[in-house]
Amino acid sequence: HSTMVTLADGGEVSFQDYFVRLRHSVPVAGVRFDSDGSPATPRVLEALSNAEVVVIAPSNPFVSIAPIRALDGVDRLLAARRESVVAVSPIVGGEALKGPAARMAVELGHSSDVVAVAALYSEIATALVIDPVDEALAEAVSAAGMRPVVVPSVMSDPAVAARLAEATIAAVR
Question: Quick one: pLDDT band at residue 34, thresholds 50, 70, 90?
Fold first, then answer.
């Protein structure tokens, strides 16, 4: 299945073309997946159903996480077990940890902060891990429907990564 990016100028390109050839440097107006409505495989649904905790990685919500969510059954299953689903924000201090997530958020009509991430995930996850740099937005994350968990989230060394992993899992246990 392909991820297609609608450019602000009206054209449409594959995500690979947008990311590599265009170096994700052009404004976007939308993202679509030709897998919309396709069912998730039984193995995917089984894995999501049987996992003790589901962690949504700090990846681009629009082009990395959304294609998985677009598969029929995934969001319904995650919403049903929302209390054991936690997300780690890919946006820290208004900037993406990597790639165009923050800019895409703005271009697609969202803010480029952890509050936008909370709004995107609140129906399927109960907690959002945010970096201390965004602690002032914790109340707004709560208002968007997610419990904020403030912990250093930029994995600058193995000890920080270990603390992040522990806090992420603990958030929904």
Answer: confident
Task: Report the 10 Å Cβ neighbour count for 96.
Answer: 19
Q: Which residues, in sequence order, are CB contacts of 114 under 8 Å at separation 6+?
A: 89, 91, 92, 128, 130, 134, 137, 141, 148
Token pair recorded at residue 167: 């806090």
Q: Which two tokens stand for residue 2?
A: 């392909």
DSSP state of 12: E
- Report whether 45 contacts 76 (CB < 8 A): no
Which residues 6+ apart lie within 8 Å of 22 measured at CB?
13
- Measured at the CA of 40, the angle between CA 166 and CA 165, to 5 degrees, comes to 5
pTM for the whole structure: 0.92
Cβ contact 154:124 at 8 Å? no
Distance CA 114, CA 87 (A): 11
